[in-house]
Amino acid sequence: MTAPILRLTHVTRTHGDGDTAVLALRGVSLDVFPGELVAVMGPSGSGKSTLLNLAGGLDKASSGEVWIEGQELGSLSALQLAALRRRRVGFVFQDFNLIPSLTASENVSLPLELDGTSVREARAAAAAVLETVGVVELADRYPDKMSGGQQQRVAIARALVGDRRLVLADEPTGALDSHTGEGVLRVLRERCDSGAAGLLVTHEARHAAWADRVVFLRDGVVVDTTGPAEVAEDLLVASEH
Q1: Which residue range is the domain that position 200 belongs to?
Q2: Distance (Å, rounded) from C-alpha 64 to C-alpha 46?
Q3: PANTHER family under this entry (predicted)?
């Protein structure tokens, strides 16, 4: 059987100490396989973003294990973890996290350049993925000269550039109109179809309908999992249980 790209095993995450401690995740286990897009849904405060941060090594589990392609993140040094994120994990954040002093092309190519790719090769790869998400004409523009939707698409291009085996997306269509949002989801779907694993946090049932599976979180616990929905309304019904 094919090994998962992402594996979480009995993961918990507690924020704070003592009387103010908040248990954000409570023993979550999840596998995401090559070629699979998994959507995570749930109300605000259910642990969705915490799950995504743990999956990408941006935060550490209080207990349990997180594995990416056979490497247990808790066993890695800070430098090893940074290299793994740079090479294998693409993040799409709600607030874009673009570097203001860099152009779109420079923002997208930066992870490759940091990992030793020549500037010429990195910029060519950036141009190709900017074209894929429909904003190649913004290559020389700085973030403060872009709309929110344009910044979001550049951020998505940065997450997809290179051979990223795991793509983590936190509400990636939040700043986009419905037509552009569907286009972004199609790009994510195509990347997974080509062999990557994707984890998508969303509040939108119609966006989750692009996924192979939908995982429902409530109070830090997986309360339900569905297969692909025929229509988005099926997901709305499932999320109410």
Answers
A1: 6-94+163-239
A2: 18
A3: ABC TRANSPORTER RELATED (PTHR24220:SF685), IMPORT ATP-BINDING PROTEIN (PTHR24220)
